[in-house]
Amino acid sequence: MSFQGRHVCHIADMTVADVDRVLDAAERLLPAARGERTLEAAKGKILATLFFEPSTRTRLSFESAMHRLGGNVISVAEPGSTSATKGETLADTIRMVSSYGDVVVLRHPREGAARLASRYSRVPVINAGDGAGQHPTQTLTDLFTIRKAKGEIRPNTVTIAGDLKYGRTVHSLAQALAMYGAEMVFVAPESLQVPADMRQHLDAMGARYRLASTLEEVVGETDVLYMTRIQKERFPDLDEYRKVAGVFRVTPSLLAEGKKGIVVLHPLPRVGEIDPAVDDTPAAKYFEQAAYGVPVRMALLAEILGLKGVA
Fold first, then answer.
1. 79 preceded by a cis bond (ω within 30 of 0)
2. Is 107 a residue of the active site?
3. Which letter does DSSP use for residue 3 in this model?
4. Cβ(104)–Cβ(121) under 8 Å?
5. Model's pTM, two decimal places?
6. Which residues lie closer than 8 Å to 174 by C-beta, 6 or more apart?
7. Catalytic entry in 7, 59, 68, 107
8. Is 122 considered catalytic here?
9. Do the beta carbons of residue 65 and residue 311 sit within 8 Å?
């Protein structure tokens, strides 16, 4: 099925074949993402980025991706500068912005915002994170990094640790790994474990997973350790946040007890859950992961815009 003109609001909007197609294209686009090739396939095309929440990696990698494809970018990176401050609805904002560009990338604090935007947009909408909901392009980047580091996705045991209740990157990644049949271990305090409705969905998919409460008990069987930040901004009660802040920390000594060849990923930013001493170990792949956001998003944009001769 062609990607051209499609919205990507949820990882479930894509099949395994779709994901593989994007990852394969991203592999071929690596030289262009690094500036070693110059492309003009998106000449005359405009990407509109709308970020109603802070972002460094996602926004800049999308904008870099569009520029690397030869296109242009219009951007809102400060919510206070939009007419939302005057009471304009998201639906009206999307109606307007989608008339200015060829594809819209939206980050919004409200879960389901991207799906809502897709109903009113004249052009494809890509979800760049909607509250505690989904972050499908981060998941594509995560899968690409796993494939680069481990050769393939399916045979690995992926341990996902930290904030599994509010973490949208976790929700997207878990469903994608279930699609591939990878084995998962979810490590979190009980208050931050994968929500019951998500577990029910994973069960319906036939996912292979189990729950754990410490990194020490699972590091020896882990191929990929995916750490996440405890997201203070998602907690309705700061006292609850304080109870779990800093509960997990990856250190060189922990990795020394781990499975041979273990790699550590993180969607970033980190706030203490990975010791900086880990940065200099072979396990550290999180900065490469962030860099891979450019070729992956180039590949997705190329597919959605129907660009020819890109990869």
1. no
2. yes
3. -
4. yes
5. 0.92
6. 160, 184, 186, 194, 198, 202, 207, 209
7. 107
8. no
9. no
What CATH topology corresponds to 136-290?
A: Rossmann fold (3.40.50)
Report how far residue 173's alpha carbon sits from residue 163's, in angstroms, rounded to the nearest whole number: 13
Mean pLDDT by 10 residues, the chain (311 residues): 87 94 97 95 97 90 98 83 64 94 95 94 95 89 97 95 86 94 93 90 95 94 93 53 66 95 94 94 97 98 91 65
Selected catalytic residue, list 21, 57, 115, 122: 57
SS (H, E, C) 212-268: ECCCCCCHHHCCEEEECCCCHHHCCCHHHHHHHCCCCCECHHHHHCCCCCCEEECCC
Provide φ and ψ at 63, rounded to 5°. -70, -40
User: Is 222 labeled as catalytic in the residue annotation?
Assistant: no
Q: Which of 7, 10, 45, 58 is catalytic?
A: 58
Fold assignment, 11-135+293-305: Rossmann fold (3.40.50)
Active site residue 135: yes
Active site residue 159: no
Residue 151 neighbours by CB distance under 10 Å:
9
Question: 106 φ, ψ to 5°?
Answer: -120, 130
User: CATH 3.40.50.1370: which residues of the chain?
Assistant: 11-135+293-305, 136-290
C-alpha distances in angstroms, 195 versus 166, 170, 171, 218, 297?
9, 11, 9, 20, 29
Please compute, for residue 277, the number of CA atoms within 13 A of its CA located in the half-sphere on the CB side. Answer: 9
